[in-house]
Amino acid sequence: MSHISYSALKEWSVCPWKHKLNYIERINEFKGNEYTAFGTALHTVCEKLVLNKVNDAAKLFNEEFVKNLAGIKEEDAQIVFKKDLIEQMRRQGAHLTQHILPAINSYFGNFELISVEEKLYETTEEEYNFKGFIDLVIQTKDGKYHVIDWKTCSWGWDTRKKNDKMITYQLTLYKHFWCQKHDIDPKDTLTHFALLKRTAKYNEVEFFKVTSGAKKTKNALKLLSKAIYNIQKANFIKNRLSCYGRYGICEYYKTKHCK
Questions:
Q1: Cα dihedral angle (10, 13, 14, 19), rounded to 10 degrees?
Q2: Residue 41's closest CA among 84, 83, 104, 100?
Q3: Residue 1 confidence (pLDDT)
Q4: CB neighbour class for 198 (10 Å; exposed up to 12, middle 13-18, buried from 19)
């Protein structure tokens, strides 16, 4: 590997051995499901809306949702979708599209669009490349830049998740390498998550600021450096404490790949 993404870093932090199986040996090629199709479709709508390239956002969402589901089925013919869930998502996604632009304008006020889906491929101190895609960068009238990442979810995030360092490190690293790419002072750049809530009854699109100061950036880069060092040295230790993780049992638990 000549590059590392935030997703790969996050998985390495949970279990280096699982990182090896997924990112080095590529054993588990996740094809997607209803939730990933929903999220990808909404991301496309967000992109087109801020670029002012869509007249009917709800229609675009449904077209993209159907296309993404078809793509997943093409990759994995054995997958069985939940029809009731898909119908719910069609309605929920169409409803959400009407709240995206109003939420951006309400939260930021007047702004200038800087980039959409901007690619990062920046060299680290270890001569690795940090790879990522920033959903949205804007500049407000006070001169501040804002790095924004869209997240689809059900009803929202609780306080613990909003402050989870491994989740927020995504924006911290995106900010650092975006500023490095454009030679911009990090003090002039802020970071935000934008939650697109599928089942919420109000505040369907929620923006919240993530603190990404110098100390946090230093800690995130330290973790990144540690991961790169161990990946290069092929040090992939099994973290037995992660077998029963926050989101369930690891798919490799007690399989031939991890005994």
A1: 80
A2: 100
A3: 57
A4: buried
Neighbours of 144 (CB within 10 A): 14
Tokens of 132: 């990522």
Q: How far apart are CA 135 and CA 26, in angstroms?
A: 26
Write the burial class of residue 84 (CB in 10 Å: 0-12 exposed, 13-18 middle, 19+ buried). exposed
Helix (H, G, I), strand (E, B) or coil at 130: strand
CB 18 within 8 A of CB 247: no
User: In the chain, what are the domain boundaries?
Assistant: 3-249
**For residue 37, how many other CB atoms are within 10 A of its CB?**
24
Number of neighbouring beta carbons within 10 Å of residue 221: 18
- The two structure tokens encoding residue 190: 């802020």
CATH of span 3-249: 3.90.320.10
Q: Per-residue pLDDT tens for 237-247?
A: 999 999 987 66
Residue (of 12, 10, 7) closest to 232 by Cα position: 12
- Give the chain's end-to-end CA distance (angstroms, integer): 25
pTM of the predicted protein model:
0.95
Q: Name residues whose C-beta falls within 8 Å of residue 196's C-beta, 6 or more positions apart in sequence.
A: 42, 46, 96, 100, 150, 151, 152, 153, 204, 205
Token pair for 62: 């449904």
pLDDT attached to residue 259: 81
3-state secondary structure of 22: helix
- How many angstroms separate the Cα of 198 from the Cα of each of 44, 46, 133, 140, 206? 16, 15, 23, 28, 12
The residue assigned the tokens 């935000």 is 192
Closest CA to 33 of 8, 68, 84: 68
The 3-state DSSP class for residue 113 equals strand
